[in-house]
Structure formats: C-alpha cells, structure tokens
Amino acid sequence: MSDNIFNNCENLEIKIEQGIIWVYFKLTSGKSLTTLTEKSLSDLKDFLTKLTPIQKDYKGLIFSSHVEGCFLAGMDIDVIASLNSLSVAQEGTEAGQKIFNMIDDLTIPTMAMVDGVCLGGGLELSLACKKIVASDSSKTRLGLPEVMLGVLPGFGGTYRMPKKIGLINSLDLLLTGKHLDAKKALKLGLIDGICPRERFSIYAEKFLFAKKEKTMLENLKIFASENLLVQKLALQKAKEKVFKQTKGFYPAPLRILEHLEKSIGRNRREWLASESLSFAELSQTIQSKSLLNVFHLTDAVKKDKKQNEVVKIQRSAVLGAGTMGGGIAWLMADHNQNPIMKDIAKTSLELGLKQASQNFKSALKRRKISEDVYAKKMFSITPTLDFTEFKSVQLVVEAIVEDMSVKKKVLADLESKVLEDCIITSNTSSLSIGEMSTSLQHSERFAGLHFFNPVNRMPLIEIITHPKTSPKTIASLYQWCLQVKKTPIVVKDGPGFLVNRILATYLNEASYMLMEGVSISHIEQTALEFGMPMGPFRLMDEVGLDVSGKVAKILHDGLGERFRPAPLSELLLGKGWLGKKNGKGFYLYGNGSSNGGSKDQNTLNPELQSLLTNQTKKMTAQDTLNRMMLPMINEASYILQEGIVANAEVVDTGMIYGIGFPPFRGGLLWYADRVGHHRLKEWFETLSKDVDQTRFKMSDYLTNIISKQSRFYP
C-alpha cells in the first residue's frame, strides 16, 4: 500500500517508519501552543477515514508533536467562545466525539507520546489511544481543565478517563481541572510509561508493543472502586464537597456529577450523548461566558511580553524585613533568586525569616516541596544589617514603614549602594510613587511594586509607574513578575492606584449603610451571596482598621468628596479597635488561638452597637448590592477616564486577582456590561436622589458610554 495516501497537511505531518505511522501535530498558526482547531480536527478525520480500512497494513499508530514542551493544549479557546447556541455547541462536540471514537475503534496498537502540555482535548485524544507515554520534562502536564471554563470535557473525556483510572480517581481531576506531572500521572495509571523526549523514537516500539498485565492488587483495587455502591457514595461525597467549596455559584462541577451519576453502567453511545448535551448546555451559561473572559484576561497578561529590552534579574533584594519583607524574600527565594533581606534591626530580620519559613513549611506540609528543598531555599536567603552584597543584585524592593519622608531618605541612600542598572522599587499601598521618585538622581529606573498580603497567596502585583519611569524598567518588572509566577498589571501613579481605590468605595459604602441602621449580617450576607470571598466588615478587620482608615484619608485628600469616609472608621479607631491584629474590630478574635485568631470568628463585637443608630433599616438584597457595587463600577470608570490603566481588561484583572472579585461574574466591568448600562443609569439616578448626590454621580466616562449605548468591553 502506498504511503502517499496520507498527505501531509497544514496541521498534521504524517510519517511512516518501519511500518509505524507517526502523526505529528504542528504549531497552530498565530498561536504560541499547539491546539485543536476546526481545521486540525478536519485533517485528523480525513486521515483516520483513509487509515481505517487499510489499518492492517501497518504495525501501529503514534501521535506526537513537533512543538517541544507542548503536545496539545486542548481546543482553541476561540472555538469554544464562538459556540453561540445550544445546537452549534452540541453539533461541535458530537463531531469531535466521532473523530476520537475512530481512534478508539482502531484495532492496531495506538499510542500518544506526550511531551509538555497535554490538556483538555489533547488528553481526550490521548485517552482514545490504547497507551499514553509521557516525557520526564518538568513542563509535562496532563489534565482536563474544562471545568475552569464552566463546561465539562466534550470529546469523550468523562467516558474514557474513568475507564482508564476508575471513577473515583477521575472525580478529583474532572471537578478541579488540576494538572498532573508525569510521575503522578504514572502512579495514578493515567499514563503507561515515562521516558526522555530525546528517546521517544528509540523507545516507541518498546512501549507500543509491550504487554502489561495488571497485578492481583491492581485488579482488586479496580474491582473495589467500580462497585456501584462505592461509586454512588463517592459521587454523593463529591457533591457535598463541591457545594461547600463553590456555594453553588459554579454549575459545571454539579453538572459533571449529575452526568456521571446518570451515565454509570451505560454504553459508550449513551454516555457520550449525555456528555455532549451537558457540554452544550453549560457552554451557554453566563458563568461559562464569564469564565472564558477571565481566561482571556489571564492569557493576555502572559502574552503581553513588553518587547522592550529588559534587565535580566538573576538576584534580588528586599529592604525592610518583618512580615511583608519576609513574604517578599520568600517569593524571591522560591524562584531561585538568592535574595538579600536587609533591615536595621536584628529582631525584624528574625521576624522576616520566620515569615519566609512559615510559607515554605506550608508547602512542605502539602508535599509541594521536600525537606531538602525547604532547607536549600531557606539557606538561600541572606539576612543582613548592611549593604555589603547589594552590588550583586539587579532588583531591590523597598518594604519599610509607610512614611513618605522615611522612604525618600532611605531610597536616596539606597541609590548609591547599588549598580547603575539596578531597578529600585517601593512596595507601597497608598503613597505617591511620583513624589518618592524625586529623591532619586536616576528616577527612570524607579517604580512601585505593590504586593498584596499575604504574598504567598495573593497573585496580583501592581507595577506603579510615574512619568519618568523608563519603558525598559516597566518591561523588566513585568517579566520579573511573570518569572515569579505573579499576575502583573501596569498602573499609573495616583491615590490608591487601582485596586485599593476601587475597593475603598465598596468598604466605605458598606460602612455608611451600617451607620444608617442596616444590619451588619445582612450587608455581609449580601456580599457573600454575590460571590465575594468575604464581607466588607470581615475584610476591614483582616486588613486592619488603622490601615483602612489611613488609605481612606489619602483617597479623600486626593480625590475629593465622593471619598469622604464614613464616620464609623474614626469611631472604631477611637476605641482602639484595629481588627484582627489586636483581637477586636467589627468581630472578636483571639479566643485562645495560637495564631491570634478565634475559634469562633463569627462573634460580633457586642460593643459595636453602642456606636450605631438603634433603628433597624430594612433593605432588599438588590438595593444593598447596588449600594456596594455601583460606586466600584463608577470609580473604575473614573480610572479609565483619567488613563490610570489602559482598558477595562486591566481593571477586571486587578479586581479578580487583587480582591477576589468572583470569577464567575467575569470581572467588575464585565459584570457591568452584563447588567446593562441603562439599568445602571436608573439605579445611579435613584441612589443619587435618595442617598448621596456626590457619591452616586456618574463619571463623564460612564455617562458617555450609556448615551452612546456602548460598553466597557469592545
């Protein structure tokens, strides 16, 4: 049989070596990763149609990729986003299922040889093969992350993964979208072997034709896990866990469980029909559309390479230890930057090292790192009381007390202690980066790096620029943030920058409502039911009432009357209540807990009522939500009006990764577009009349959008 029957095409390269067909996926045009597209699926279908009737002429079939570090990153996200109706989505998944069924139904040995990323449709294709072998590369990751987009695997993943590793093992992967490295995948039975990418061609036949007999113990485990009663119990437990973690905000995990429960014991045709319908219905939900927007936001951050020449940051330092300095030193050490941590007090250095150690021990406890790695990373931090080694660093993060005069003095001194191309930054949540820059002779290499606390958990970093910050400095800091696995956004200098400026309106309006007589429990519950990670008063306690008060004053001084703080903050501070840090704020803390927390942190401060009006004001959940959300939307529009950030996408990235704005809402301004600007106008006009004309006066930017029937997003 002539091999010319298999013509190479745009997306596939087909080779025959010693009777084995190798199908290589090519890099998708315009993409940085190999993905499945409508065209590549069509090419694959054409190839399989030709192969099926003559398959006995060949020894076997192997799928691989020409792109090092990427087998298949799944279905092209633009294809998923284009599914604009139930029928289109269902037809698309059914077409993909039929193609993967063709692989499944081949009688010759089939294998996927995976190097790097193998996610979504890439893993579904691999599961349709009789074997999967993965490279030992640190980039190798296997998983079905569709749930993160608000859908479920639609090309047979929910059917074939349980067949491969059992239903119970599959639940964790299907419901969380987590990725496995090669070692974990092998241990779970998801793959059948590991070898270096460089030896794929050498070991291909060995893996392809090897016969693997399951041990008696493996057979017993399979028998036990496939017991119908065990599966039903596992599904019920999973449902309880999903409700606890998602609070019902995300329909995809629940629909996955419903689909699996319905499909157990059914044949492939029935199982895949249920999968296709489930995918189609989920793809049309507002949650899925919103999560797709979050994916685009995140992807845009990674793709924004800031192509300017950059300073290659190999070693970094933090000036100022303590809790925040220790967190930043941990971040640097965790990414192999051998950081220097300097302070003027030994006790502060000890506190910084303690913070770094706690962060590493948390990873150690979760088995993310070994004891050896923990020791190595901790020893890589150099605590010091002087500037001896500062000539060896390319980045310094100043993280001392929030006092402008002190910062300017320290920065001026620091400039003479580092090399000329060293980037100097300040970690500040509220002070002007522009004013700080006046203390430096070479202010072009200076910017703000606003970390969010705790550093080991909060993914966002605001890169704060001033008029003289050079493009090279911005580009270098952007790349450094990506290097340490953080999400950077570039923000111009201004009171509160981006996140704190918008957040302050949410906290301030909640305080005004509380003083008007709306119950604290109602306000908190409304925020939680919207999807916020915590209510406004709990958040103020966590941040510290003194910190919130200081930021509120800076914003009021800088931005005027719409930021006039509710008197409540001053009243609480007058009582000496600082929130969680000293055990008393809106709630009570510190009932014997070793870390200062309370075993029951839902206990309201009983003395709070004495500061509030005695009347009880009733307010609907929607009205309460409007009071908190509308000022945030309005302030975001002011920020766009002033050019503080480039676009609505940057605003939403900051809100999602900076304060945990609910991802299933798609972002603050994405949510505003979904609500509809005419409804927003009606609400603003009502609140301006009934509550406060200044705080609820729409910006010119927002007024213009509404008058033109436009949107925040293009």
Would you write up a description of this structure?
With 714 residues, the chain is an alpha/beta fold. It folds into three domains: 282 residues, 2-enoyl-CoA Hydratase, Chain A, domain 1; 179 residues, Rossmann fold (3-Layer(aba) Sandwich), CATH 3.40.50.720; 177 residues, N-(1-d-carboxylethyl)-l-norvaline Dehydrogenase, domain 2 (Orthogonal Bundle). The strands form three sheets. The protein has an eight-stranded mixed beta sheet with strand order 12-11-10-13-14-15-16-17, sandwiched between helices. Helix 14 packs across helix 15. The longest helix has 21 residues.
- The share of residues in extended strands comes to 5-15%
Unreliable stretches: 592-599
Main sheet characteristics: 8 strands, mixed
- If helices are DSSP runs of H or I spanning 4 or more residues, what is the number of helices? 29
| Protein structure class | alpha/beta
Apparent shape: globular
The CATH homology group name of the largest domain: 2-enoyl-CoA Hydratase, Chain A, domain 1
Look at the structure and give the CATH class of the largest domain: Alpha Beta
| Share of helix, binned | 40-55%
CATH-defined topology of the largest domain: 2-enoyl-CoA Hydratase, Chain A, domain 1
What is the average per-residue confidence, as pLDDT, rounded to a whole number? 92
The count of domains is 3
- The name of the CATH architecture of the largest domain is Alpha-Beta Complex
Radius of gyration equals 28 Å
According to DSSP, the number of beta strands is 17
Widest sheet, order of strands: 12-11-10-13-14-15-16-17
The span between the termini is 54 Å
